Amino acid sequence: MNATIKRFIIILFLSGLIQHPTLWGQQQPKQNPQLILNLDKANRKVSPTLYGLMTEEINHSYDGGLYGELIRNRTFQDDAKKPVFWKLTDSSTKSTLTLDRSDPLNQYLKVSLKFEVHQGVSLPGLENQGYWGFPIRPGTLYKGSFYAKSIKGGGQLNVGFLAKDGHQYYAKTTVHSVGTDWKKYTFELRTPQDITQTAEAVFVITPTRPDTYWFSLVSVFPPTYNNRPNGNRPDIMQLLAEMKPTFLRLPGGNYLEGGNFANRFAWKNTIGPLENRKGHQGTWGYRASDGMGLLEYLEWCEDLHIEPVLAVFAGYTLGGDHLEGDLLEPFIKEALEEIEYVTGDIHTKWGAERAKNGHPEPFPLHYVEIGNEDFFDRSGSYKERFSQFYTAIKEKYPSLQIISTFGKEFDIAGGKAEIEDEHYYRNAEQMEADATHYDNYDRNGTKVFVGEWATREGSPTTNFNAALGDAAWMTGMERNADIVIMSCYAPLFVNVNPGGMQWESDLIGYNTLRSYGSPSYYAQKMFNNYLGNRVVPITAKDIPLKWQTLSQKDSIAGKKPEEIPAVFYVATKDTASGTVFLKLVNTLDKSQPVNIHLQGKVKINRSAKTVVLKAVSPLDTNSIDDPLNIVPVENEIKGLKKDFTYIMAPYSIQVIQIQTK
Ligand code: AHR
After folding, report:
1. 400: left (phi over 0), alpha (psi -120 to 50) or beta
2. pLDDT digit string, tens, across residues 299-324
């Protein structure tokens, strides 16, 4: 290379317009990394609540997602002017469908659907398009209901699931004798065994003679998890159950705060009969039915045998409105009542209300979070607001642990935040570069709840590179699981149908019929399913490094690439069974041997089970049409000694289960 070309390359490199040559491929490790596990010193406790779930209404998480309801816009409030998602089966008819506020069902559902039926060539029906169709499965029972009335009275309505061709009914029945006053009608639809499952269907209500009908709260449910009335989709619940989470952070997220006071998560509007739930405008661009109300969240926890982590509205909205001092008192009262609804026995006012709603048993609750992401509150009011909530909650419920959303070591009247909620949304290299984040935290300071975190690569669900970033980050949380007492990934869900997503890179995807876990889902499942109760200290040597990839923006800004670790590790031991779970992450594009030395007075079994999640390319992923492309594979290592070499596959995440005795 002549001197001028060389000088030119050096200038480009220094200006950041090209990167270090080793960035074009990943750097070769010079020698095997070594991990020395000190099994006699596994003293640091692993929080039993380390891995949990976070939820809110985003990406059609509930309506069109986990919540079983199949009718979209069931109370006709999604649009103030038109009955969106509803239409006539025959657009050529003189019959009409309009929103009507003249004689509502009750004070909550102030609008109903008016259906003026005129005889044409045939009588038109009323059709709901569902959430991207309906999950029609063979041999399945669907339970439905609606409130209705008509002018003449006595007419009958045929209801059913109609194929998109407009001819074939997958299931159909008749509701007889609709009266002239509002009344609830129930029906069942059973599909035959000999159909193929499909989402290509609509729900139809067809009158048998001309009349004018009104409808309110039209509802149809498929079978639900644990057969809960008003319950959840079984396939998605099953994916969650397999993660073996320990808690559910609810109800948000931004969804807790709302765009304004009227649209915060006002829990009292979300309990009781569905016809008493008016719903509200969610924070992610669509209206929430509030079918997933406070009790449904709690029952969701109950079904997974986990505890809620209850976030209470803290007087600050996403729009920036906030209240302080005496003006905050009604919201503090609302939070105390909410805690009573969750935990109070049936002799308390709100415990009795919960019993009336169908759940006499109180729910367990140990953690309450005050607000969400209050570092966005530029008014600086959080410390005061937090202090007011903290004092009132601690006075009535001294044993509850209170989580602040912002501000470590809060010194407030009567105490300090026991736990701080930290959020991290990053790319894979940022996660990897910061995997030692908690290694030097004050071990006696405020505990940490990583209440939202995710490696955001891949869409709608994450790809394998994100799973590598997640796994690297989890090694850091797990190694410090005495400080990081809880963590939960966000967002949890995405409806992958067109228009279903507002936030890219999610954990679990689904359409109307099927659901799947992303590579990140499987990484988390592995980390949580193979977890001890003590951290095993590891001394590491010769950990391979790789050059960070600079974004174009950072290159132009003159930022220099740095070397970051390419291999990550953590080990925990289950003191009851003696199993050591060694987790290793290889982010390199080549196989990487690791020398492992098990130090201590213990003996080990000669064979060890392994679980490996790997990909050919970091861009590899799972999708609705290829849901199991990347899944953990179990295997066994034989002839294990206290010194052994394990070869990690390129782009791999693994757990080695070493049995000590
Ligand atoms: O997880 C998506 C959003 O990210 C949450 O609603 C919010 O808390 C955070 O900003």
Report:
1. beta
2. 999 999 999 999 999 999 999 999 99
CA-atom Rg of the chain in angstroms: 28
pLDDT of residue 414: 54
If you measure from the C-alpha of residue 254 to the centroid of ligand 1, how many angstroms do you get, rounded to a whole number? 6
Across the range 75-97, mean pLDDT stands at 95
Report the b/e string of 283-306 with b at 16+ CB within 10 A: bbebbbbbbbbbbbbbbbbbbbeb
CB count within 10 Å of CB 269 equals 17
Token code pair at residue 66: 């986990």
Residues 6 or more apart in contact with residue 443 via CB below 8 angstroms? 482, 483
Evaluate whether 49 touches 490 at the Cβ level (below 8 Å).
no
Question: Which residues line ligand 1 at a C-beta cut-off of 6 Å?
Answer: 56, 58, 252-254, 372-373, 452, 490-491, 503
Let me know: does 406 contact 424? Beta carbons within 8 Å.
no
**Distance separating alpha carbons of residues 260 and 263, to the nearest angstrom:** 5
* Residue nearest ligand 1's atom 7 by CA: 253
Cβ atoms of 268 and 315 within 8 Å: the answer is no
Residue that is written with structure tokens 């026991």 in the block: 418
Return the SS3 of 616.
coil
**Residue 244 predicted with pLDDT over 50:** yes
- Distance, in Å, from the CA atom of 218 to the CA atom of 115, rounded to the nearest integer, reads 14
Q: Identify the pLDDT of residue 9.
A: 40
Atom of ligand 1 nearest to the CA of 252: 6
Query: What angle, rounded to 10 degrees, do the helices at 329-343 and 294-304 form?
Result: 40
What is residue 595's predicted lDDT score, i.e. its pLDDT?
Answer: 97
* Average pLDDT rounded to a whole number, residues 280-305: 98
- Which of 59, 61, 62, 254 to probe ligand 1 with, by most ligand atoms within 8 A of CB? 254
| Residue located via tokens 């039209």 | 218
This prediction's pTM: 0.94
> Bridge partners of 141?
190
Query: Element (H or E) spanning 288, and its range?
Result: strand 287-288
